[in-house]
Protein backbone atom coordinates (compact mmCIF):
# COMPACT_ATOMS: atom_id res chain seq x y z
CA UNK A 1 0.00 0.00 0.00
CA UNK A 2 1.36 3.41 -1.03
CA UNK A 3 0.44 6.44 1.08
CA UNK A 4 0.85 10.01 -0.12
CA UNK A 5 -0.51 13.39 0.90
CA UNK A 6 -1.65 16.62 -0.70
CA UNK A 7 -1.60 19.69 1.56
CA UNK A 8 -3.85 22.59 0.53
CA UNK A 9 -3.62 26.23 1.68
CA UNK A 10 -7.35 26.56 2.33
CA UNK A 11 -10.47 24.44 2.92
CA UNK A 12 -12.18 25.35 -0.41
CA UNK A 13 -9.44 23.46 -2.27
CA UNK A 14 -10.27 20.11 -0.63
CA UNK A 15 -13.20 19.08 -2.83
CA UNK A 16 -11.44 20.34 -5.95
CA UNK A 17 -8.23 18.43 -5.19
CA UNK A 18 -10.12 15.25 -4.27
CA UNK A 19 -12.19 15.19 -7.48
CA UNK A 20 -9.17 15.91 -9.67
CA UNK A 21 -7.05 13.23 -8.02
CA UNK A 22 -9.75 10.57 -8.24
CA UNK A 23 -10.33 11.30 -11.91
CA UNK A 24 -6.62 11.30 -12.78
CA UNK A 25 -5.86 8.07 -10.86
CA UNK A 26 -8.85 6.31 -12.44
CA UNK A 27 -7.72 7.28 -15.95
CA UNK A 28 -4.14 6.19 -15.31
CA UNK A 29 -5.04 2.62 -14.36
CA UNK A 30 -2.00 2.46 -12.08
CA UNK A 31 -3.88 1.51 -8.92
CA UNK A 32 -6.39 -1.19 -8.11
CA UNK A 33 -7.72 0.53 -4.99
CA UNK A 34 -7.96 4.19 -3.98
CA UNK A 35 -9.06 5.65 -0.64
CA UNK A 36 -9.06 9.42 -0.03
CA UNK A 37 -9.64 10.99 3.38
CA UNK A 38 -9.51 14.61 4.54
CA UNK A 39 -7.30 16.03 7.27
CA UNK A 40 -7.82 19.03 9.50
CA UNK A 41 -4.20 19.66 10.51
CA UNK A 42 -2.55 20.28 8.18
CA UNK A 43 -5.50 20.97 5.88
CA UNK A 44 -5.39 18.48 3.07
CA UNK A 45 -6.04 14.99 1.76
CA UNK A 46 -4.47 11.63 2.61
CA UNK A 47 -4.36 9.15 -0.26
CA UNK A 48 -3.95 5.39 0.16
CA UNK A 49 -3.19 3.63 -3.13
CA UNK A 50 -2.75 -0.04 -3.98
CA UNK A 51 -0.46 -0.12 -7.05
CA UNK A 52 -1.11 -2.71 -9.77
CA UNK A 53 1.65 -5.26 -10.14
CA UNK A 54 4.19 -4.08 -12.69
CA UNK A 55 3.52 -0.39 -11.99
CA UNK A 56 6.16 1.39 -9.92
CA UNK A 57 5.60 3.63 -6.93
CA UNK A 58 7.04 6.49 -8.98
CA UNK A 59 4.31 6.02 -11.60
CA UNK A 60 1.65 6.31 -8.90
CA UNK A 61 3.28 9.39 -7.46
CA UNK A 62 3.50 11.03 -10.88
CA UNK A 63 -0.27 10.62 -11.25
CA UNK A 64 -0.86 12.48 -7.99
CA UNK A 65 1.53 15.25 -8.98
CA UNK A 66 -0.03 15.67 -12.42
CA UNK A 67 -3.51 16.08 -10.97
CA UNK A 68 -2.43 18.42 -8.18
CA UNK A 69 -0.45 20.56 -10.60
CA UNK A 70 -3.61 21.82 -12.28
CA UNK A 71 -3.63 25.55 -11.42
CA UNK A 72 -1.04 24.92 -8.69
CA UNK A 73 2.65 24.91 -8.00
CA UNK A 74 3.80 21.49 -6.88
CA UNK A 75 6.85 20.52 -4.90
CA UNK A 76 7.31 16.79 -5.52
CA UNK A 77 9.30 14.34 -3.50
CA UNK A 78 9.24 10.54 -3.66
CA UNK A 79 6.05 10.19 -1.63
CA UNK A 80 4.74 13.74 -0.91
CA UNK A 81 3.34 16.41 -3.19
CA UNK A 82 2.54 19.85 -1.74
CA UNK A 83 0.21 22.37 -3.36
CA UNK A 84 1.58 25.81 -2.57
CA UNK A 85 -1.08 27.90 -4.31
CA UNK A 86 -4.20 27.33 -6.38
CA UNK A 87 -7.50 29.10 -7.08
CA UNK A 88 -10.83 27.67 -6.11
CA UNK A 89 -12.45 26.38 -9.30
CA UNK A 90 -16.24 26.46 -9.42
CA UNK A 91 -18.92 26.35 -12.07
CA UNK A 92 -19.43 30.09 -11.60
CA UNK A 93 -15.77 30.92 -12.22
CA UNK A 94 -15.82 28.91 -15.44
CA UNK A 95 -19.00 30.33 -16.91
CA UNK A 96 -19.56 33.55 -14.97
CA UNK A 97 -22.22 34.53 -12.45
CA UNK A 98 -25.30 35.16 -14.55
CA UNK A 99 -28.91 36.09 -14.02
CA UNK A 100 -31.68 36.03 -16.61
CA UNK A 101 -35.20 37.36 -16.16
CA UNK A 102 -38.26 37.79 -18.34
CA UNK A 103 -40.95 40.13 -17.04
CA UNK A 104 -44.24 40.31 -18.93
CA UNK A 105 -47.15 42.52 -17.93
CA UNK A 106 -50.04 44.18 -19.73
CA UNK A 107 -47.82 47.26 -20.02
CA UNK A 108 -44.36 45.89 -20.90
CA UNK A 109 -42.41 42.88 -22.12
CA UNK A 110 -38.87 42.88 -20.72
CA UNK A 111 -35.98 40.41 -20.99
CA UNK A 112 -32.72 40.98 -19.13
CA UNK A 113 -29.53 38.95 -18.85
CA UNK A 114 -26.45 40.00 -16.88
CA UNK A 115 -23.06 38.37 -16.41
CA UNK A 116 -21.17 39.82 -13.46
CA UNK A 117 -17.93 38.26 -14.70
CA UNK A 118 -18.21 39.67 -18.21
CA UNK A 119 -16.08 41.96 -20.34
CA UNK A 120 -18.35 44.98 -20.73
CA UNK A 121 -20.57 43.75 -23.56
CA UNK A 122 -23.58 46.06 -23.93
CA UNK A 123 -26.62 45.11 -25.97
CA UNK A 124 -29.67 47.08 -24.91
CA UNK A 125 -32.81 47.97 -26.83
CA UNK A 126 -35.53 49.44 -24.62
CA UNK A 127 -37.16 51.89 -27.08
CA UNK A 128 -35.87 54.63 -24.74
CA UNK A 129 -32.61 55.87 -26.32
CA UNK A 130 -31.29 57.70 -23.26
CA UNK A 131 -31.93 54.65 -21.04
CA UNK A 132 -30.05 52.48 -23.55
CA UNK A 133 -27.15 54.93 -23.30
CA UNK A 134 -27.13 54.65 -19.49
CA UNK A 135 -27.27 50.84 -19.59
CA UNK A 136 -24.23 50.97 -21.86
CA UNK A 137 -22.43 52.89 -19.08
CA UNK A 138 -23.35 50.18 -16.59
CA UNK A 139 -21.87 47.49 -18.81
CA UNK A 140 -18.77 49.38 -19.90
CA UNK A 141 -17.66 50.70 -16.51
CA UNK A 142 -18.81 47.72 -14.45
CA UNK A 143 -17.33 45.22 -16.91
CA UNK A 144 -20.65 43.39 -16.82
CA UNK A 145 -22.24 41.84 -19.89
CA UNK A 146 -25.68 43.48 -20.00
CA UNK A 147 -28.37 42.39 -22.46
CA UNK A 148 -31.77 44.10 -22.33
CA UNK A 149 -34.71 43.81 -24.71
CA UNK A 150 -37.85 45.72 -23.84
CA UNK A 151 -41.07 46.88 -25.44
CA UNK A 152 -43.79 48.81 -23.68
CA UNK A 153 -46.51 51.42 -23.73
CA UNK A 154 -44.16 54.27 -24.58
CA UNK A 155 -47.00 55.85 -26.58
CA UNK A 156 -48.24 56.87 -23.10
CA UNK A 157 -44.84 57.68 -21.60
CA UNK A 158 -41.58 55.96 -20.62
CA UNK A 159 -42.53 55.37 -16.99
CA UNK A 160 -43.61 51.71 -17.12
CA UNK A 161 -40.79 50.57 -19.40
CA UNK A 162 -38.16 52.41 -17.36
CA UNK A 163 -39.54 50.87 -14.15
CA UNK A 164 -39.86 47.30 -15.43
CA UNK A 165 -36.39 47.28 -16.96
CA UNK A 166 -35.00 48.27 -13.56
CA UNK A 167 -37.13 45.69 -11.73
CA UNK A 168 -35.96 42.94 -14.08
CA UNK A 169 -32.33 44.07 -13.88
CA UNK A 170 -32.46 44.01 -10.08
CA UNK A 171 -33.93 40.49 -10.11
CA UNK A 172 -31.27 39.31 -12.56
CA UNK A 173 -28.59 40.80 -10.31
CA UNK A 174 -30.12 38.99 -7.33
CA UNK A 175 -29.93 35.71 -9.25
CA UNK A 176 -26.35 36.27 -10.36
CA UNK A 177 -25.16 37.02 -6.83
CA UNK A 178 -26.55 33.75 -5.46
CA UNK A 179 -25.60 33.27 -1.81
CA UNK A 180 -23.04 36.11 -2.14
CA UNK A 181 -20.18 33.99 -0.83
CA UNK A 182 -16.71 35.48 -1.20
CA UNK A 183 -17.76 38.89 -2.56
CA UNK A 184 -16.51 42.25 -1.28
CA UNK A 185 -20.15 43.21 -0.56
CA UNK A 186 -19.41 46.97 -0.29
CA UNK A 187 -18.66 49.37 -3.12
CA UNK A 188 -17.82 53.07 -3.13
CA UNK A 189 -16.89 55.33 -6.04
CA UNK A 190 -16.93 58.98 -7.10
CA UNK A 191 -17.15 59.69 -10.82
CA UNK A 192 -16.45 63.07 -12.43
CA UNK A 193 -17.83 64.06 -15.82
CA UNK A 194 -16.67 67.57 -16.73
CA UNK A 195 -18.26 69.86 -14.13
CA UNK A 196 -20.36 67.06 -12.57
CA UNK A 197 -19.16 64.89 -9.68
CA UNK A 198 -21.29 62.09 -8.28
CA UNK A 199 -20.58 59.85 -5.30
CA UNK A 200 -22.16 56.38 -4.99
CA UNK A 201 -21.83 54.03 -2.02
CA UNK A 202 -23.62 50.68 -1.85
CA UNK A 203 -23.98 47.55 0.23
CA UNK A 204 -25.20 44.22 -1.19
CA UNK A 205 -26.78 43.57 2.19
CA UNK A 206 -30.06 41.99 1.14
CA UNK A 207 -31.87 45.01 2.62
CA UNK A 208 -33.37 47.39 0.01
CA UNK A 209 -32.88 51.08 0.68
CA UNK A 210 -32.29 54.10 -1.54
CA UNK A 211 -30.96 57.45 -0.41
CA UNK A 212 -31.03 59.76 -3.45
CA UNK A 213 -29.75 63.32 -3.61
CA UNK A 214 -29.46 64.56 -7.20
CA UNK A 215 -30.40 68.07 -8.27
CA UNK A 216 -31.03 67.73 -11.99
CA UNK A 217 -31.76 71.22 -13.33
CA UNK A 218 -33.97 70.28 -16.30
CA UNK A 219 -37.08 68.13 -16.51
CA UNK A 220 -35.91 66.29 -19.63
CA UNK A 221 -32.77 65.12 -21.37
CA UNK A 222 -33.88 64.66 -24.94
CA UNK A 223 -37.28 63.03 -24.46
CA UNK A 224 -36.25 61.28 -21.22
CA UNK A 225 -38.06 62.50 -18.11
CA UNK A 226 -35.34 63.12 -15.50
CA UNK A 227 -37.74 62.13 -12.69
CA UNK A 228 -37.32 58.58 -13.98
CA UNK A 229 -33.69 58.42 -12.81
CA UNK A 230 -34.70 58.14 -9.16
CA UNK A 231 -37.50 55.74 -10.04
CA UNK A 232 -35.07 53.53 -11.96
CA UNK A 233 -32.73 53.16 -8.99
CA UNK A 234 -35.59 52.71 -6.51
CA UNK A 235 -37.00 49.86 -8.61
CA UNK A 236 -33.58 48.23 -8.98
CA UNK A 237 -32.94 48.50 -5.24
CA UNK A 238 -36.31 46.94 -4.41
CA UNK A 239 -35.71 43.72 -6.34
CA UNK A 240 -31.95 43.32 -5.84
CA UNK A 241 -31.92 43.83 -2.08
CA UNK A 242 -29.29 46.56 -2.18
CA UNK A 243 -28.60 49.55 0.05
CA UNK A 244 -27.71 52.43 -2.27
CA UNK A 245 -26.65 56.01 -1.54
CA UNK A 246 -26.29 58.53 -4.38
CA UNK A 247 -24.94 62.03 -3.74
CA UNK A 248 -24.32 64.91 -6.13
CA UNK A 249 -21.18 66.78 -5.13
CA UNK A 250 -21.16 69.11 -8.15
CA UNK A 251 -22.85 69.55 -11.51
CA UNK A 252 -24.93 71.87 -13.68
CA UNK A 253 -25.55 69.89 -16.88
CA UNK A 254 -28.39 67.37 -16.60
CA UNK A 255 -26.86 64.87 -19.03
CA UNK A 256 -23.51 64.99 -17.21
CA UNK A 257 -25.12 64.53 -13.79
CA UNK A 258 -27.12 61.47 -14.84
CA UNK A 259 -24.33 59.85 -16.83
CA UNK A 260 -21.82 60.35 -14.00
CA UNK A 261 -24.36 58.71 -11.68
CA UNK A 262 -24.57 55.57 -13.81
CA UNK A 263 -20.77 55.46 -14.18
CA UNK A 264 -20.22 55.79 -10.44
CA UNK A 265 -22.90 53.16 -9.78
CA UNK A 266 -21.26 50.77 -12.25
CA UNK A 267 -17.84 51.10 -10.64
CA UNK A 268 -19.21 50.77 -7.10
CA UNK A 269 -21.23 47.69 -8.10
CA UNK A 270 -18.16 46.20 -9.75
CA UNK A 271 -16.21 46.62 -6.49
CA UNK A 272 -19.00 45.07 -4.43
CA UNK A 273 -19.52 42.03 -6.66
CA UNK A 274 -15.85 41.17 -7.15
CA UNK A 275 -14.19 38.38 -5.21
CA UNK A 276 -12.35 39.03 -1.95
CA UNK A 277 -9.60 36.36 -1.96
CA UNK A 278 -9.02 36.64 1.78
CA UNK A 279 -12.59 35.53 2.50
CA UNK A 280 -11.94 32.06 1.02
CA UNK A 281 -15.50 31.79 -0.28
CA UNK A 282 -17.27 32.68 2.96
CA UNK A 283 -20.28 34.99 3.30
CA UNK A 284 -19.20 38.58 4.14
CA UNK A 285 -21.43 38.98 7.17
CA UNK A 286 -20.93 38.49 10.90
CA UNK A 287 -24.38 36.85 10.88
CA UNK A 288 -23.25 34.28 8.33
CA UNK A 289 -26.04 35.10 5.89
CA UNK A 290 -27.00 37.89 3.47
CA UNK A 291 -30.67 37.44 2.77
CA UNK A 292 -33.11 39.35 0.56
CA UNK A 293 -35.62 39.78 3.41
Task: Quickly describe the structure.
The chain has 293 residues and is an alpha+beta fold. It has 7 helices and 15 strands.
Which keywords apply here?
alpha+beta, five-stranded mixed sheet, globular, four-stranded mixed sheet, 293 residues
How is the topology of this model organized?
Elements: E1 2-7, H1 13-28, E2 31-39, E3 44-51, H2 57-68, E4 74-76, E5 80-83, H3 91-95, E6 98-104, E7 108-115, E8 122-125, H4 129-142, E9 145-152, H5 159-177, E10 186-193, E11 196-203, E12 209-213, E13 220-221, E14 224-225, H6 227-240, E15 243-250, H7 254-273
Parallel strand pairs: 1-5, 8-9, 12-15
Antiparallel strand pairs: 1-3, 2-3, 4-5, 6-7, 7-9, 10-11, 11-15, 13-14
Q: Which term fits the overall shape?
A: globular
**Sheet of most strands:** 5 strands, mixed
Number of strands: 15
Strand order of the largest sheet: 2-3-1-5-4
Taken as a percent bin, the fraction of beta residues is 25-35%
Helix content: 25-40%
Order of helices and strands: EHEEHEEHEEEHEHEEEEEHEH
C-alpha Rg (nearest Å): 25 Å
Mean pLDDT: 81
Low-confidence stretches: 65-91
Distance between the termini: 54 Å
Q: What is the structural class?
A: alpha+beta
How many H/I helical runs? 7
Amino acid sequence: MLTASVTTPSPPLLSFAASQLKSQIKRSGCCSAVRISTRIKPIGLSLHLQPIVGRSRNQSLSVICAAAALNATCSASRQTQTITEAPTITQASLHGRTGEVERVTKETNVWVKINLDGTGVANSSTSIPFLDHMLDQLASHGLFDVHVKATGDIHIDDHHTNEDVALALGTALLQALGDRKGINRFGDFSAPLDEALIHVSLDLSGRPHLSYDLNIPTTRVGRYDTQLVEHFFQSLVNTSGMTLHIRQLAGKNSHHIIEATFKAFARALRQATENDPRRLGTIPSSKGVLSRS
